[in-house]
């Protein structure tokens, strides 16, 4: 891993801020084994292409947001395609080990990546974690449209990880396990 422009750490098709680097190191040092603690909990992710957007199947079937409320398709996707880890875990488990949220986020991001591999387009999967909540969202990469600031270290209150996904992308070895 190396220091990139603007304080962004990058490794292949992955970018993370310093806070995420510390959280991932903490997670590895504690050897949180989410598979054995929470078997079968991870969601089955289904994504559909609809109207030029790539959306979680549940949202596509029952939209609760209007495309007119967003400046672009990327904004719509990031809002519609948000999976909250705290909604998937028992609060008592999270209270005893907050890093389970991050672990759940990594498993969910990988599931999203596998599903997006069906499409030839390129996508960003964004994982954010602040110790009390964790969210995974994704969007198609489009010229002239952004969801995040260029300098991920500007997000001082949360850890941020961005992984590129799609048919040509591979899951970063650093996150495999």
Distinctive features:
single chain; 177 residues; alpha+beta; 7-stranded antiparallel beta sheet; two-stranded antiparallel sheet; 6 helices; globular
Describe this structure in words.
It is a single chain. With 177 residues, the protein is an alpha+beta fold. It has one domain. The protein is built from six helices and nine strands; from the N terminus they run E-E-E-H-H-E-E-H-H-E-H-H-E-E-E.
In short, what is this structure?
The chain has about 180 residues and is an alpha+beta fold. It has 6 helices and 9 strands. It is globular and about 45 Å long.
The number of distinct structural domains comes to 1
- On the 0 to 100 scale, the average pLDDT is 83
Roughly what percent helix? 25-40%
In this structure, how is the largest beta sheet organized? 7 strands, antiparallel
Oligomer: single chain
What strand line-up does the widest sheet have?
1-2-3-9-7-8-6
Are there runs of 5+ residues with pLDDT below 50, and where?
1-12
Structural class, by secondary structure, is alpha+beta
Order of helices and strands: EEEHHEEHHEHHEEE
Distance between the termini: 18 Å
What's the total helix number? 6
DSSP, total strands: 9
Shape: globular
Beta fraction of the residues?
Answer: 15-25%
